[in-house]
Amino acid sequence: MATSAIPAAIDALLTILRAADQLEDVVIFDGPPTEEEDAAEILAVGWRGSEEPGAEGVQDFAYAGARRRDEEFTIGCWLEVWSGDTDFGPVRRRAFELLAAVEDAIRATGSQPMAPTLNGTVQWGHLTAMSLQQSFTEDGIKAGIPFVVSCRARI
After folding, report:
1. pTM of the entire structure?
2. Cα separation of 4 and 155, whole Å?
3. Ramachandran angles phi, psi of 133, nearest 5°
4. Spatial CB neighbours of 133, under 8 Å, sequence gap ≥ 6
């Protein structure tokens, strides 16, 4: 029996996002991006763009008997779009377009009935928090969105 659903959920989230047509041109990382990455659009799963935890969770007994546990956890992610231009509008809008693609990929649909369960690894998982960070760099501008996928699992 697994002590946590976090590793399987992260693996499933990566599989789902890498298969999403709307994200096919985005470089998707398991954890933080490599230093030498210079892609204009990146997505990191299990990394929030800082020293914050990549995932956090809590557990409690699922019911009397203590044989099963309920786990609630978050998976931190980072989405970034950059451009050599100086106009934040298009970069910011593109970042939120990609965030919408992430949300669509993990939602339940007729063609993906298991999507909110992250391929059966959790009872449910969905995008629950995000923020926007904009900055100038020596190479242009970037818009970054740290976001959270919240999950519940029975282990």
Report:
1. 0.92
2. 7
3. -125, 125
4. 49, 143, 144, 145, 146
